[in-house]
Design brief:
It contains five helices and no strands. It is mainly alpha-helical and 141 residues long.
């Protein structure tokens, strides 16, 4: 199989892949929606398609972040952006932890655990974007 060199054909191939991905995602959502309506939320989440959908959504989000960081027109100070994002993340984690701890059936340890999980899960994208912006800033200099 020959490698495609023509940029128009490469672009058309990428558009075709995007269309196939959208159709596949709609099909997965349709199957999961059917499971949700007929069997309920717990049974839907036990379906292996749920795990596949979550993995592809996370990977798609990370790939989109790398494109959006390269596409930013104005130069954003990576350190300032990291600091602002960290403050917002700590605030959100604290609020989530507080509300979980005051919910009936949960205690302060549950709130601390939930707030920590939210913080750790939010920290990965923040650090990833920081590294992308830092790399772009180093490449520009």
């Amino acid at each position: 199989m020959k490698k495609i060199i023509d940029e128009r054909l490469v672009l058309q191939s990428l558009k075709n892949i995007r269309i196939v991905y959208m159709i596949q995602t709609i099909g997965i959502l349709g199957i999961l929606g059917y499971d949700f309506v007929t069997k309920g939320l717990d049974e839907m989440r036990e379906n292996p398609l749920w795990l596949l959908f979550m993995i592809t959504a996370v990977i798609s989000a990370y790939l989109s972040m790398s494109i959006s960081a390269d596409h930013e027109k104005n130069t954003i100070n990576p350190q300032k952006s990291l600091a602002i994002s960290s403050v917002v993340l700590v605030s959100i984690s604290t609020v989530v932890g507080f509300f979980v701890s005051i919910t009936d059936g949960f205690n302060s340890i549950d709130g601390l655990i939930m707030g920590s999980i939210v913080f750790i899960c939010g920290l990965f994208p923040i650090v990833y974007i920081y590294n992308l912006r830092k790399k772009r800033q180093d490449d520009d200099e």
